[in-house]
């Protein structure tokens, strides 16, 4: 059987892009030695315990970390202590200001024809009901498209109810399709005159834990009360509607905007040996929604990337600086990613990657590299194959935290995780430590370790790409 190192050498020799490589530095290790060391690092990381320790510590000692609140500030302080203890360099907090929304009382009850209570949670940026609540008849829409098709003014005085049911997919693509009911549904309902809106939670579970999440209202549109019903309760409400009698619902929601408060990004580094080679940016987001303890979203992501970077920190100094960023306030609008770019726009970033899709195994590699650096993708594919990771046919797209940096023309790598069960727990009270599988978490660390070892030490120049 061929070794990973020999396969990498063969793939490089056969690549039609090999002739496009810039002249390689003569002080770098021989390719065979480099790739053998990558395989050794990768395989050792399958026994990693650092990532689980970070997730366990963050969820136990801090818990939920709603953006801009005292809890998120405690999380930043906790993170600085942890990253310094792990040996990272240049650890600091970079603060910025942002508007802060918090939830309050949240209740729902069917008044007629079948009186019973329902479980729900307010969506981020939701308006509030009157103090005594809001009681109105439901206007039922099986899908978001049905809501969009409703005539202007037809929802006046009613509570819109959108019941589209998300299904799980490995790549998570169904979230974007079904999620529109939450992302923009309240804005559409408000424009059509609705007094409030409830949507079936954007999740693939069948339980009574509602899924939180952000919604946005256009300029000039007054926010209406907006909430997500637990999937089981939404299905029950749909069955009531199917009985053919008018359904009246009472909502009590008291969220509020609390003004401008401080958030921040936590930054740490593995210093590189060649300042001209650029920065490799990796990380996830530190904040979470406030129903669970944010274990899979996204304590796991910050843990995976930091644990992988530490494995390079503990070895020979990489060529490129690896910058680990635990971004703040991603859930409520991606403030951390934009603040990072504003603070570091003048630095040379050559590649960015983030982990923000839970803790289940990585199954696919996607890249977006300039032509001269395409051989890096070949080496990544071969190094990751023993972990059961396939090479995709698309290009990397990143996520909310690194989108601003990618938008400047920085190359990207995606290590896509399985989404088969992620949306069972996403943004719910069930996002807790017991949802993290230590073996799958370690497989993530191994994949990220191999990726960082190759990218941070690649002899090729990683230049700009077309902005995403």
From TrEMBL:
Keyword list, A-Z: Carboxypeptidase, Endoplasmic reticulum, Glycoprotein, Golgi apparatus, Hydrolase, Lysosome, Metal-binding, Metalloprotease, Protease, Secreted, Signal, Zinc, Zymogen
Taxonomy, superkingdom: Bacteria
Subunit text: Homodimer. The monomeric form is inactive while the homodimer is active.
InterPro entries in the record: CPQ, Peptidase_M28
Principal place of residence: endoplasmic reticulum
PANTHER family in the record: CARBOXYPEPTIDASE Q (PTHR12053:SF3), PROTEASE FAMILY M28 PLASMA GLUTAMATE CARBOXYPEPTIDASE-RELATED (PTHR12053)
Signal peptide: 1-18
Subcellular location, record wording: Endoplasmic reticulum; Golgi apparatus; Lysosome; Secreted
Domain (Peptidase M28) ranges: 265-448
Keyword Glycoprotein applies: yes
Name of the protein in question: Carboxypeptidase Q
Organism: Sphingomonas hylomeconis
KW Glycoprotein (keyword) present: yes
